[in-house]
Amino acid sequence: MRQIGLAVVLALSISAPFDIEAQQPSRVWRIGVLSPFSPSPGSHSTFEALAQGLRELGWVDGQNIAIEYRGTEGDLTRLPDLAAELVRLKVDVIVAPTTAAALAAKNATRSMPIVMVYIADPVGAGLVASLARPGGNITGLSWGGIELSSKQLELLKETVPRLSKLAVLTNPASQFHRQVVKDVETSARTLGLHLQILEVRGPAEFDTAFSTMRRLRADAVLIPGDPMFNFHRTRLADLAAANRLPAMYGQRDNVEAGGLMSYSPSLREAHRQAATFVDKILKGAKPADLPVEQPTKLELVINLKTAKALGLTIPQTLLLQATQVIE
Prior knowledge:
Order of helices and strands: HEHEHEHEEHEHEHEHHEHEHEHHE
CATH class of the largest domain: Alpha Beta
Strand order of the largest sheet: 7-6-8-9-10-11-12
Helix content: 40-55%
Oligomer: single chain
Shape: elongated
CATH topology of the largest domain: Rossmann fold
Mean pLDDT: 89
CATH architecture of the largest domain: 3-Layer(aba) Sandwich
């Protein structure tokens, strides 16, 4: 009996460390989000889309992951400091939704994994070596290769048949906008449109830009996606309405704020898709081995209330193509 008792005690003493180890809480992974939008996680629908995509893959904020949001509220000059802050926090992966954010993250770290979300030309921007073999610490989503500008202009031309002079509002600080201008120039030549490229460096220049459009008798305006344009989306929609300018936007948020129409990859769906990259990286995959993908969903959003105020009749063919019609 004494031998049996000693054997039980010995067995328990051997197994105890393993039982204690099994009861230890699992690791909480830290995900940094470097955004040109507000730092508040509930301030932008893309944040929730990313969190939802992660939840679908078993990653829950406050349980097995902790998401650190850092946002600039449209001020891109703050991105380098916020990127450096996420690196100091030693997050396990950084999610960067724009070219400027991805570049700031890359400049802050060459080893920490980075998932880009909405990048026009990651190879040209120097973010990855190639789409098939990124080769460094960055991977994610690029909509390069999607004929976005040509389709935007075609849709705008169909909406405004008289369109001849097209104003393009750009932010000269945006590398993305430099690519947009090149694409638009090519598309405009095909459609026989005369372009008026207007640069604005901040919201203080919005009024002057729209006054110039009116003076030059622009028939419509293209406003590409941009953190500054998104942050001031209601004001831009009001200015377009006040100057009776039909506007095509690069993000649906602008249309929800009163703009006429947008055609673009879905930012929300792209963030959900980005969650799959985060999932693979947290499970041990290297960004260098994960090919860059394209967004899986493009969306056309039309604001019929704005169209009516502008005296426009949206063709039925466009309404049938629309992902969402706001009435």
